[in-house]
Amino acid sequence: MEEQKIAKIDVILFVINLETANLQIQLVDSCAKYNELYYATCSKKQSHQQNKLTRERYLLKDVFRQTLLELISDEDWSVLRNAITLLQRTSLHQTQLRRRHEELKSSLEAITTQLKKRRQESEAKLRHCDLNTALLKDIIKDTMMNTAMRLNYVDKWLLARAESVDLEHREEINIPPSTDCEKRVHQQVSKIYELQIKERQESLEYWKCRYIKDIVDINERLKLKSKKFKEAVDRRTELQELYDLHAGEMRAWLSFKQERSARLAREERSRLAATRIQAWWRGVMVRRCIGVFKQLKNAKKPQTKVKKK
Question: How many other CB atoms are found less than 10 A from the CB of residue 201?
Answer without folding.
Answer: 10
